[in-house]
Amino acid sequence: MSGSLTTEVRLKALYFVIFQTGFVALLTLKSGLFFDRDIAISVLLGGIIFLLPNTLFTLMAFMFVGARHRKYVVLSFYLGEVVKLSLTAIMFILVFVLLDVEPLALLLGFILSTLTQWTASIFLSNKNRMINGC
Q: N or C: which end of the chain has fewer CB within 10 A?
């Protein structure tokens, strides 16, 4: 894959992470405004439990790009997914065991953050169409 195409793929992956991070921040802010501080912190923790493993997966998955590295691309995706799922489980366990959180708010923060994987792709593809004039 050419250098500019590699950069474009990695840049799109970065946009996804930025979009998801912004969503978690906005969700936390709204939770704090409409509910109390404990709910907002629990929502934030749920979002972080989604964001950190997902960001790590993104870094690992897009470490290699292109046909020349196809074996490494597949391996990095599989390894990234294993790390993401394991880290998510570990983070949930640690938060529930070590912190006093609102379980429903934590799970909603995680679930709503997870949904950004679909909304980000829709939003960013529409953004690209508007920019490119298509």
A: C
